Amino acid sequence: MLYMYLSDILSSSDLFDKISAKFFVRILIDFASVFILIRFVYYRNYKRTDLFTTFFVFNMVIFMITYLLNKVEMSMGAAFGLFAVFSMLRYRTEGISAKDMTYLFLVIAIGLIAAISKGGWDELCLFCLIILVVTHLLEGDWLIRKERGKMIIYENIHLIIPDRRPELLEDLRLRTGLNVHRVEIEDIDFLKDATRLTVYYYP
């Protein structure tokens, strides 16, 4: 009986008449683009899954809100203002790295483009493809050799003087097992005979 009641509601509802096929095409392209970006570019390089929900939820919410607002007349300035507001949203109680913020910016941009683009599905696919390809090239070693940094606490402060930099690099390579090629001294604690370093290495 419940099934018959639901069937009557769906058959009498004009919900699907109000939602055009363009909406489903756009949301499909949007989701596919974000999935490729996060799963095959972000995860492949950083092996992190803790921000997956944040990326997808931000993208979906921004797509929905922008698509609804796009039904009314909205100037280019208002669109950029909306983009700026969404791009600054973040939990203030925890930090986020520059890389994670970049990907958050990208999923926001994809959702916004998918919602307000005036072109057809082929033009939208082209825009998303450009974002994916450029991000993939920049994350790889195609344009420039990728460098990563890691902050460590180091106790042999007698090696931090400029004249002994080769010894410092060699000691860091032996201790960390990383191909350290340069180092930056962030802080020195002479009371504890320790220093805070940022080591840079090629993965």
From TrEMBL:
InterPro entries: DUF4956. It holds the Pfam family DUF4956. It comes from Dyadobacter helix. Keywords: Membrane, Transmembrane, Transmembrane helix. The chain crosses the membrane at residues 23-42, 49-68, 74-91, 103-120. It comes from the Bacteria. This is DUF4956 domain-containing protein. The keyword Kinase does not apply. The keyword Transmembrane helix applies.
